[in-house]
Design a protein that fits this description.
about 160 residues, disordered C terminus
Length: about 160
């Protein structure tokens, strides 16, 4: 496995952003309304970001094999690394989509529905960025030391 590249996350975010913008514009042109987004969307994304952050904080000493903490089982560590990679990609897609909705909703911000949709989509995008940041941190913690370097603190390349 190779570490997640920021370029990949930016590309996914831009693609999802263009889809979100197109959806917002199409709904506005076809029905004259803004895309309805419930506050539950923002709450859910923030909940996932906080849950992943808590898992990261709890897993860190176990992955680093700090004294007083039981080391994490290899299978659990591998699943944690897979979770981190999936969460970073998902977070970038969700952030891009809601940012695109925000941009598409800007012309309708003079109405109450447009303002609500703008704030909800911005809150959702911010939560998705927090999810992506937590996932990248967890992925960074899951890296194994490079071969032959006993002084490495575990921040080397991801081994296959």
């Amino acid at each position: 496995m190779t570490p997640t590249r920021i370029r990949l996350l930016l590309t996914l975010g831009l693609l999802a952003g263009s889809i979100g913008w197109a959806a917002a514009v199409m709904v506005d042109n076809q029905s004259g309304r803004v895309v309805p987004i419930p506050w539950l969307a923002a709450f859910t994304v923030w909940f996932l970001a906080v849950a992943l952050l808590i898992w990261t904080v709890l897993a860190r000493p176990r992955l680093k094999r700090k004294k007083g903490h039981r080391p994490m089982a290899p299978l659990v560590a591998a699943r944690t690394a897979a979770l981190a990679m999936a969460a970073s990609r998902t977070g970038s897609l969700v952030a891009g989509f809601y940012a695109g909705i925000s941009i598409g909703t800007l012309p309708s911000r003079a109405t109450e529905a447009g303002t609500d949709t703008l704030w909800i989509s911005l809150a959702s995008a911010a939560g998705a960025l927090a999810l992506t940041a937590a996932a990248l941190w967890l992925e960074h913690i899951c890296r194994l030391p490079t071969d032959g370097d006993s002084n490495d603190s575990g921040l080397g390349r991801v081994s296959a």
